[in-house]
Structures are given as structure tokens and as C-alpha cells.
Design goal:
heterodimer, A: Immunoglobulin-like, 3 domains, 9-stranded mixed β-sheet, 5-stranded antiparallel β-sheet, 8 helices, 21 strands, about 20% helix, flat, B: mainly alpha, elongated, membrane (chain B), clathrin binding (chain B), transport (chain B), AP_beta (chain B), AP complex subunit beta (chain B)
């Protein structure tokens, strides 16, 4: 089992940061970088590069594999050797990216360069040179690697403070709970739950969902002192299926009475993820057991010899809530150009000549409103092949598809009474065929 | 520090000045700049003594940066690192546990011969440290030490200490200890001649098992994976114990980390084999489905790995995910590699209930932008038709719709698929032949052309102008590619046998051209065979060339059942993603080093081949020609490709595969047919459809002497085919 190291490439495929690859030859990271860049050169869309690349060994080296993921404009490679689960590498990469986001805010070539010392420390702490991920829990990590913002603040104060800070975290991992810091103190004890659900669906031209699923998660931000033991109950836990939990959740309790019993980490974390299916039985047939799509699209796309025309109407099916951040995208095919569109009912359209994607945006669709986009484009290639589906994305605040309701939150183990907040939010990602 | 005088000016000189500054901030800033230069590849090794002076500090961050610098130059300049040893040893006694852990971790990473001997004492102390962070760091350090100098680990009793630490009160320490012991175990077993009672082997005993099961629920995701991997290696014959393990592992399916899920799936798949209660197994399988489906909403690369593994699991347990086909529908924005895997799984999941939904999806995909994906979708329609008899007609209608679009590559691909449908359902859809022939001019790809020619030859008696159509191809015969030439040759002979009156001239012309003007030995030899057959005994020719062939069928697995078992035991590894046994690409242990290079090479080809493999149908095209010969004995009793595949476990090559010695699919292919009676008829269904790369190995195999050699040749290169073709002639 070995993740041999990690290499972060910038947008032109040059390494910015890499681990030191102690136990391999110096050429090892280089062949991985080469392999990735060669594979990238062969595909038309950068996303189409196979996620696990085979890397043949040089000289008597063993062959290995290169797992890679994208992050912003960057590409992060994890060379693995031996019969390792590539998912293991991907899981580590994702975790590492999350950690970077938490430390740096925005992850880009320049933020990495500016904070390379922090990035190196993070690499050292999260990945052992033998290939084992080490400390990745944000709570524990913050005790041993100081986030840059905090550090900068301290540097601006007198130099003497620095060493006292190091002393402050001199008893790391003393906490009996691996995911929670010991001795947490907050002036205001509060905990927030954001129930975020995403509807992903493929819809055919007459508005019938072909595949339709709602994935939910409970984003939690805990700012509670001491060691709070929480019990969260739902009034309708039946809507939750295929659940997966943060390690802090006591699984036996959940399987017994569908209540979440846990001692939370400090700060933001994802408490649980689930799937919502209106009726879990008989999932093979169409219709009844699907979540209704909250908009109606009436697309009419005609493609002819030298371009095409679009007439698209979007109608909100919601009667009380507004739809926010509404975007529709359509790839117009090779050779597309000279777009000429009109929108009615607000919003704007744009065409990206590089990606050849037409984009229609509206900040707000009031309940039951109707909007449209009309126009045409030309193509230098006869009978252009445009995408067969519009990609439609939007958000609805204060709304969840599952109508999941938190019944109560009980706290034991501490004397204070926390402030509790619950919010619901829905995201929709549709593929609407024309 | 006179032995390495720094430069007098320039960047390094300034850095050196700052490193020796009297101000703490300035020194720290200078260290950062040194590291920055180091990361962009500048040589800052000259600053070694200056940096080293800053190692003694109570600022932990500064210490870490200095350590980082040391690690970077330890490999190239080990003699300099010796200077730092004392500080390391001292730091491993520091009151701050972070410093102790940092020191011991860094010493483990330095990998310098000279430093190792100093590691033992501090390591001894750190393994017994009060702080769990130090203990867990030290545990991993033992594994690294073992890598460099095993005897040091044995002499100092570190192994015993690790074994004691499995009972540690802190689950993270347990997890790292297990990881370290597993690393040592792996490094022992990678030696070709290790002894089975090497003390460094990590055999999970019942006692250890219980401790692991307790720690499992309490440690981090990475710890869980290490523990689950150890559980997968646990061997027991006690069925109750296996059930117990499975039940304790099942809750891990609810972990958010997909890698934990697959590590758990692997444990279940391994221990489930020893459980005879089918109801219990069914229950495990049912619980496995939801987390797998959940993984499909992850980022594409995770989806891909999940899909490859699901594909394998489905080959073993077709009841898994049987109602979930919709989650595999392709999204427009999915990367191609995800779409291709989804298509494959959708066909696997197809049944009478969902076939309509599947077909309308596939038809939709056939109009997408990406040409590769369109072709694969059309192939999937053909596979569906072959898999589900009752849906064949609907599939044919969809294909006709697609042909009507007149988009060149759609028509060509549909033609190839059509041919396979004819091979599965002979004499069922003759009504559409005129539509197909109408598209003759559109075809420019050899495979599509060859397919249409095959159809014309096969149904020559029902096509009025078959002779005219074939005449066109005979005119351009020498310009065509070999597959087209072969098909043309066969089709003309079929036509002649069916309608001798109209095609006498045609057949003479083509036999003449093929034997005189053709440089492919395949084509030439086949022409001679036909010629002799026709001239010596036309009745026999009829019996041979026009005999009924058994319909093709779609194989349930793309890998042989034996290999499948092996791969399932490695679910959640590279092997299960590549669908190849591990030794073919990592070359550790079980296979000699010399074969590694070659097999590694195969892997690349073979990944292509795997992609092609499901297009079994298409691959059959090459062997089609041979079918014509070989079918006479087969026509009565005809176990199809599937039936033949089940013979595998008893064949010698299967045993080879089990032993891990033979990774070459051809080996077992040949022996399958050595054992079966209906030889080559099954070639088209063979899972390793795109076999062309492995030809020479198949020939070298001892099983090859069995009579139906034709199989090996059907996929080998033209030159090799010559020989068996001659043999066959002799047979007749």
C-alpha cells in the first residue's frame, strides 16, 4: 500500500510543489509528470484523460500508476506503486484539496507559491513517506500546522509571541476523541445545520425525468465548548436512505432508532450524506416515485446547413419560492460563431468562443414566471453537432425536496444551552434534452 | 565551516548573511527563502552549515522548515546530515511531543546508512512514549527501518514491541501499528525465497482479530483501511467466525470515504466465500448496493474506479443493483471514460423490464457529439439485441432509425452491429436487407464493408442482385483491405454454391485474383482451399461452407471465471480496476522479474483490449472466416460459447491462472478448446476479443498441440495463420 508522493502541476503542466520522493529515483516524479502531460496532449477535452494512467518503469524500476485530479487550474498527481486501490489515492487527494482550501481559502498556483511553507508542512503531516496518510482531520491538523492567516496576524505582533504560540499547542493529540480538539472554548456556544439537497436529473424533451436522484448532506458548523454530546432527532427520518456518516456518529444508535448521537468536531464538517427517494420500493418504473422538477423548459432547437436556431422558454413551477442563480448552457458544436440572441423577462446571455458554450443567466426567477431565449447562430461547419441537452442549474433557498425536519437537538455533558440554527437549501442540476 | 566557503556575493551570499543574523525574524525569513529556492530547483546545498545552525530553536515551525531542508539534501549529501544527528537524538527527548514525533519521523525518512545506527535508541523510547502521537509516528518508523536494515529491527526487538502495540489503548496507534506490520509483511513476501516462518511475517491470529475489530470503529478512515486490509488477509475455516467478521465490517459501508467502502467490500467478498448460508450472502449483497450507488455521485475519477469495480462485482453477482439501471444513465458532461464504463454496465443490467428505457437512452447517445461514444452506444444496442431475444426486434428498429440518419459513422457502425444480429438470429430479419444494401456507397471503413459483404454472402439466395453487388467488390478486390478481401472471397463462394448459374464467372475471377495477385497469405491460402474444395467435391464444399453455424451469444463475463475469483479477492485495488491479476503489472513476488517488462507492456495494449473486449461481437469478425471451416463437426451438438467457458476450471490453463503463472488469456483460451468439442465456434464470444496482441504466446503454449489449433490462429497475425490453415486442409 503506497502513495509514493504528491505532485502539484500548474496549468501548463509544470510542477509547483512536490513531496520529496525519498525512496525512489529522482527520475520517478519526472516520468509521472511526463506521462500525464503526454496523455493530456492526446485528448481533446482535458477532462477526458483517463484518471489512472499506467506508467512503465525506467530501467529496472517497477511499473507504477499515476492517479490525478484537477483542482482549479491545477492538476494534482499521486503516483502509486504496488497493488493499491486507486480510490485510496483519490480519497487522499480529495482530502488534501479540502485541507488546502481550508488553509488557503482559494487554491491556485499563486496562493500555493505564496504559502509554500504551509503547503509543505501540510504535506509532511498528512502523508507519510511510506505512503500512509497520517493526520487529515482538520481539528487535529490545526494543532500542528498553523493556518497562514493566524500566523500573519501573529507575525505582525511582537516576535516574542511566536514561540509562545508554539508552546500553546505543546500537548497535541491529548484529546481522547481523535476528531475533536481538547479544551475548546467559545464565548457563544452555537451550532448550525445546513440541510443542502441537490436534485440531479436527466429530462427528455417532453419534460419527463429519465433519471432523477436527490442527494442530500447536512453541513454542520459547531462552535460548542468542552465535550458536548449531542443527540439529533428527525421528525421524518424515513426520507433518508443510503446514509453515510462522519466518523463521529455512533452507528448502532442510528440503526436502532434513527437518531444521530455524536460528539462533533469543532468547526465546519459534514455530519451526514444521504439519498432521498420519495418511495424506495419499485424504483424501476417511471413516474410516481420521482421528485418533480421545479422548472419547465420548452426547447425548440433547429439545426440546419450553416448554423441553428434556438427558442427556449423556461417556466418556474414553484408557486411560492423564487429560483435563484438560474443558468442554462448549451454547447453549440465545432465551428459555432456569430451568436445572436434575445432574452425576455430579464437575465442575460453570453457566448464563450473558446468553449463554444452558449450561456443564459438569470439571478432570480419569481414564482410561476416565464422567461425566454430566442436567437440563432452560424457555423463554419455544415450541419454542426451541438450538444443534445441543455445543462440547467439553479438554487432554491429555504427549501428541501425531502422536507426533512429536525425534531430536536439535545445536549448532554455540558451545562450551557447552545444556540441552534437550521437552514434548508436546494440545488438543481438538470440535463434537459431537446 | 571553512570546508565549504560560500559565495561572496549573489543570492546565496545574502541568504547566508541573513541565516546568521542576530535577529530571530530575519533568520526565519531567510530559512523560508532557502526552502523557496530549493523548491524551484536552485542549488542551496552550499548553505547547509548556515541552515543547520538554526536547527536548535524553540520555534516549531522554524524547526520543521530546517528539517525539510535536511531531508531534501539527505539523499545527495548524506555526509552533511551526520552533522545533524546529535540534534535529532536530542530532539527525540524534547518535552514537546510534536518535536519528539518530528525528530523520529525525520530520522526514519533520511534513509542514510550512516544515520540508521543512531536511530535505535530514540526509537526504542518513542515506541513507549506517553503521547499517542509520538507512538503512532514511531510505529511507522519501524517499518522504514526494516526496509533499510531488517536485522536492526530484529535485534532490537522492535517487532515484538509492535505486536504489543496492537493492544494499545489508542485506536490510531493500533491502526498505524497494523499499517507498519503490514508493510513489513509485504516487504518480506516480496522476496522470492522468504521462509514461511519468518518472524517478520504478520499473520493475523484470532487474538489479533478481536483487537482489530474493536479498533476498526474508532480510528480514522486511513486507519480503517489498514485494518480492513489486514482483515482481508485473515484466514479461517470457521464459518461462524467468518459471519462474525462480515457482520462487524458491514457498518463500514456507511463511511463517506469510498476507499473505506471498497476495503470493506473486499473483506466481505473474501469471507463470504466460506459462508454457505445463501440467505446471509444475499443480505450482504443487498447491503452492498446502496454505498456503490452513492459513489456514482462522486467526482468522475472516483466514479470510474467504482464503475470498474462494480463491473467486476456484477459478473459475479448479477443480482447486485438489478433495479438500479437508471443511475448508470450517462450525463452529457461525463468524461468519456466514465460514459464507456456506464454503457458496459447498462448492458449487463439489461433485462426484459428495463430494455425499453435502455434502448431509448442508447438511441439518444447515438446522436451525441463524441464519435467514439456514439460508436460504443451503437455497439451496446447490438449487445442488447444479442442478450435479450425478446428485445431484438426493437433493437433492429432502433438501428434502422439510426441508419436512416445517414450520418456516415453511425451507418457504418450500425452495419457492423447488424451483421452480429444476423449471426444471432439467422433468417429472422431478412426484410431489412434491401435497406442495408442501399447504404453500400456510404461505407468506407473496412469493418463495415466486410460486415455488409458477409450479410450479402449469407443471404445471397434472397438478394436478387447479389451478384451485381459482389461484382463491385470483386472489381476493386486488390485495393481493399484484407478483412474485406477475405469476406468478399467467402461471400462469392457462398453465392456460387447457392446460385451457380449466375456467378460461375465471378467465382473464377476472384479465385484467380486471390491466388495470383494477392499478397496476403491468409487470403491466398483461403482462396486455394475454396478452389480445391470446389474442384474436388462441390457437395462437400456446400456442406462445409454453407453449413449452419451456432448462433453467437454474449458472454456473461469479460474475464474468465477463475480470473474473476482472483480479482474479486482484490476488489479495491489496481488489479480490480485493470481487470488483470496484480502480478501482470507490479511484478512483485509471484512472477519472475524477467517477465515483468513484457507483461507491463501487455498491460497498455491490454487496457485497450479490455475496452474492446466487450465488443466481443465485433471481434468475432476476424474469426468469422474460420467458422466457415470448422463448423461441420459442430453443427449437431452445439454448446455455445458460454457452455464452453464453463469448462475452464478443469483445464490446465485454469490451474496456471490460479497459480498466477499464466496471465496470458490465450493460454487458457487454447486449453478451453482443447477440452471442449466445439472449438472455434466460440471464438467470437470469447471475452478477450481483441486478442491480436497475444498471439505468439498462445502458440508457445504446450496445450497447443491439441487438434483444434485453429482457434489460436484465428486471432494471430496473418503470417501465423498460414500454418494452421494448411493443417486444416489436411484434416478435410
Amino acid at each position: 500500500m503506497a502513495i509514493d508522493g504528491l505532485i502539484i502541476l500548474d496549468n501548463v503542466g509544470r510542477p509547483i510543489v512536490q513531496t520529496s520522493f525519498h525512496s525512489t529515483s529522482p527520475a520517478y516524479p519526472l516520468i509521472h509528470i511526463d506521462t500525464y502531460n503526454n496523455a493530456l496532449a492526446k485528448v481533446s477535452r482535458p477532462d477526458d484523460v483517463d484518471p489512472v494512467l499506467y506508467v512503465s518503469g525506467i530501467n529496472d524500476d517497477k511499473p507504477s500508476a499515476c492517479c490525478h485530479v484537477g483542482c482549479g487550474g491545477l492538476r494534482i498527481l499521486a503516483p502509486i506503486s504496488g497493488d493499491v486501490d486507486p480510490l485510496f489515492a483519490f480519497a487522499y487527494l480529495r482530502t488534501f484539496i479540502d485541507i488546502l482550501r481550508e488553509y488557503l481559502g482559494h487554491v491556485s498556483a499563486s496562493t500555493l507559491r505564496d504559502n509554500f511553507d504551509v503547503v509543505y508542512q501540510l504535506l509532511e503531516e498528512t502523508l507519510d513517506s511510506g505512503g500512509h496518510p497520517l493526520t487529515t482531520s482538520p481539528n487535529a491538523l490545526r494543532e500542528i500546522v498553523i493556518p497562514p492567516s493566524l500566523l500573519n496576524k501573529l507575525l505582525s505582533v511582537a516576535g516574542a509571541n511566536i514561540s509562545s504560540l508554539s508552546a500553546a499547542s505543546s500537548n497535541p493529540f491529548a484529546s481522547p476523541i481523535p476528531w475533536r480538539k481538547a479544551n475548546v472554548r467559545h464565548n457563544n456556544n452555537e451550532i448550525y445545520f445546513d440541510v443542502v439537497e441537490e436534485l440531479r436529473a436527466v429530462v427528455n424533451r417532453s419534460g419527463v425525468s429519465l433519471s432523477n436522484e436527490v442527494l442530500g448532506k447536512i453541513d454542520t458548523n459547531s462552535r460548542l465548548s468542552g465535550t458536548p454530546d449531542l443527540l439529533l432527532t428527525f421528525s421524518n427520518p424515513k426520507v433518508l436512505t443510503d446514509c453515510s456518516f462522519h466518523p463521529c456518529v455512533r452507528l448502532p444508535r442510528w440503526s436502532r432508532d434513527k437518531a444521530l448521537s455524536f460528539v462533533p468536531p469543532d468547526g465546519p464538517f459534514i455530519l451526514m450524506e444521504y439519498r432521498f427517494s420519495p418511495s424506495s420500493s419499485n424504483s424501476s418504473s417511471l413516474g410516481v416515485n420521482q421528485v418533480p422538477v421545479p422548472v419547465m423548459l420548452k426547447p425548440s432547437v433547429v439545426i440546419n446547413e450553416n448554423g441553428g436556431t434556438i427558442d427556449l422558454t423556461a417556466i418556474s413551477r414553484l408557486s411560492t419560492r423564487a429560483i435563484e442563480d438560474f443558468t442554462v448552457e448549451l454547447y453549440l458544436g465545432q465551428g459555432a460563431g456569430a451568436p445572436n440572441f434575445m432574452v425576455s423577462g430579464g437575465g442575460s446571455w453570453a457566448f464563450d468562443p473558446r468553449t463554444l458554450v452558449l450561456r443564459w443567466e438569470m439571478a432570480n426567477l419569481p414564482p410561476s414566471s416565464s422567461h425566454s431565449l430566442r436567437g440563432s447562430w452560424t457555423s463554419s461547419i455544415p450541419n454542426p453537432r451541438a450538444a443534445r441537452a441543455f445543462r440547467v442549474r439553479f438554487a432554491i433557498q429555504q427549501h428541501t425536496f425531502s422536507a426533512l425536519k429536525i425534531d430536536q437537538l439535545r445536549l448532554t455533558g455540558e451545562a450551557y444551552k447552545p444556540y441552534k440554527g437550521v437552514r434548508g437549501r436546494s440545488l438543481v442540476d438538470l440535463e434537459w434534452r431537446w | 565551516m571553512s570546508f565549504r566557503a560560500g559565495p561572496r556575493k549573489g543570492e546565496n551570499y545574502e541568504l547566508s548573511q541573513d541565516l546568521n543574523s542576530e535577529y530571530r525574524d530575519k533568520r526565519k525569513d531567510a530559512i523560508k527563502r532557502v526552502i523557496a529556492s530549493m523548491t524551484v530547483g536552485k542549488d542551496v546545498s552550499g548553505l547547509f552549515p548556515d541552515v543547520l545552525k538554526n536547527m536548535q530553536t524553540d520555534d516549531l515551525e522554524q524547526k520543521k522548515l530546517v528539517y525539510l531542508y535536511l531531508m531534501n539534501y539527505a539523499k545527495t549529501q548524506p555526509e552533511l546530515v551526520i552533522l545533524a544527528v546529535n540534534t535529532f537524538v536530542k530532539d527525540s527527548d524534547d518535552p514537546n511531543p510534536l518535536v519528539r514525533a518530528l525528530a523520529i519521523r525525520t530520522m526514519g525518512m533520511l534513509r542514510a546508512e550512516k544515520i540508521i545506527d543512531y536511530v535505535s535508541d530514540p526509537l526504542q523510547k518513542c515506541l513507549r512514549d506517553d503521547n499517542p502521537y509520538v507512538r503512532k509516528t514511531a510505529a511507522l518508523c519501524v517499518a522504514k527501518l526494516y526496509d533499510l536494515k531488517p536485522e536492526l529491527v530484529l535485534e532490537n526487538g522492535f517487532l515484538e514491541q509492535l505486536h504489543d502495540m496492537i493492544a494499545d489503548s489508542n485506536p490510531m496507534v493500533v491502526a498505524n501499528t497494523v499499517a507498519a506490520l503490514s508493510d513489513i509483511h509485504a516487504s518480506v513476501t516480496s522476496q522470492p525465497d522468504y521462509s514461511p516462518d519468518d518472524p517478520a511475517l504478520f499473520n493475523v491470529t484470532t487474538n489479533i482479530l478481536n483487537k482489530l475489530l474493536i479498533a476498526l470503529n474508532e480510528c480514522s478512515e486511513w486507519g480503517r483501511i489498514a485494518i480492513l486490509d489486514a482483515l482481508a488477509r485473515y484466514k479461517t475455516d470457521d464459518e461462524k467466525e467468518r459471519e462474525h467478521i462480515c457482520e462487524r465490517v458491514i457498518p463500514q459501508f456507511q463511511h463517506v470515504n469510498g476507499s473505506v467502502v471498497f476495503a470493506a467490500v473486499k473483506v466481505i467478498m473474501i469471507h463470504m466465500r466460506g459462508i454457505r448460508r445463501e440467505d446471509l450472502c444475499k443480505q450482504f449483497i443487498r447491503k452492498m448496493a446502496p454505498p456503490l450507488v452513492t459513489l456514482l455521485s462522486s467526482p468522475p475519477e472516483v466514479q470510474w474506479v467504482a464503475l470498474r469495480n462494480i463491473n467486476l462485482l456484477l459478473q459475479k453477482r448479477s443480482d447486485l443493483l438489478q433495479n438500479e439501471m437508471r443511475v448508470f444513465f450517462c450525463k452529457y458532461n461525463d468524461p468519456l471514460y466514465v460514459k464507456v464504463e456506464k454503457l458496459d454496465i447498462m448492458v449487463r443490467l439489461a433485462n426484459d423490464n428495463n430494455v425499453d428505457a435502455l434502448l431509448s437512452e442508447l438511441k439518444e447517445y447515438a446522436s451525441e457529439v463524441d464519435v467514439d461514444f456514439v460508436r460504443k452506444s451503437i455497439k451496446a444496442i447490438g449487445q442488447t439485441a444479442i442478450k435479450i431475444d425478446s428485445a431484438a426486434e426493437r433493437c433492429v428498429n432502433v438501428l434502422l432509425d439510426l441508419i436512416a440518419t445517414r450520418v456516415s459513422y453511425v451507418v457504418q457502425e450500425a452495419m457492423v452491429v447488424m451483421k452480429d444480429i444476423f449471426r444471432k438470429y439467422p433468417a429472422t430479419y431478412e426484410g431489412i436487407i434491401p435497406t442495408l444494401c442501399a447504404n453500400l456507397d456510404e461505407l468506407d471503413e473496412p469493418e463495415a464493408k466486410a460486415s455488409l459483404i458477409w450479410i450479402i454472402g449469407e443471404y445471397a439466395s434472397r438478394i436478387d442482385n447479389a451478384d451485381e453487388l459482389l461484382n463491385m467488390f470483386v472489381d476493386t478486390f486488390t485495393e481493399e483491405s484484407y478483412p474485406v478481401q477475405l469476406q468478399t472471397l467467402t461471400a462469392v463462394v457462398k453465392l456460387f454454391l447457392k446460385k451457380p448459374d449466375v456467378s460461375q464467372g465471378l467465382v473464377q475471377r476472384i479465385l484467380n485474383t486471390a491466388t495470383k495477385d494477392c499478397d496476403s497469405p491468409d487470403v491466398r491460402d483461403r482462396a486455394y482451399i475454396y478452389w480445391r474444395l470446389l474442384s474436388s467435391d462441390p457437395a462437400a464444399a456446400k456442406g462445409v461452407v454453407l453449413a449452419q453455424r451456432p448462433p453467437i451469444s454474449l458472454s456473461r463475463t469479460t474475464v474468465s471465471p477463475v480470473l474473476l475469483e482472483e480479482l474479486l479477492a482484490e476488489i479495491g485495488t489496481l488489479a480490480s480496476v485493470y481487470h488483470k491479476p496484480a502480478e501482470t503489472f507490479i511484478g512483485r513476488g509471484r512472477v519472475g522479474a524477467d517477465s515483468v517488462q513484457r507483461k507491463g507492456q501487455d498491460l497498455v495494449d491490454d487496457r485497450l483490449a479490455t475496452q474492446k473486449a466487450l465488443q466481443t461481437v465485433a471481434a468475432g469478425q476476424q474469426s468469422e472466416n474460420l467458422l466457415d471451416f470448422d463448423d461441420v463437426p459442430a453443427s449437431d451438438s452445439q454448446p455455445s460459447g458460454l457452455a464452453a467457458t464453463t469448462i475452464i476450471p478443469q483445464t490446465p490453463a485454469a490451474a496456471n491462472l490460479l497459480a498466477g503463472t499464466s496471465a496470458n488469456p490465450l493460454d487458457d483460451l487454447v486449453s478451453i478448446f482443447g477440452g471442449g468439442t466445439t472449438g472455434a465456434a466460440s471464438a467470437p464470444q470469447n471475452p478477450f476479443g481483441g486478442l491480436a496482441f497475444g498471439g505468439e504466446n498462445g502458440f508457445g503454449s504446450p496445450v497447443n498441440s491439441a487438434p483444434p489449433t485453429s482457434l489460436g490462429s484465428s486471432v494471430a497475425s496473418p503470417v501465423q495463420t498460414q500454418k494452421p490453415a494448411d493443417d486444416l486442409l489436411g484434416l478435410f
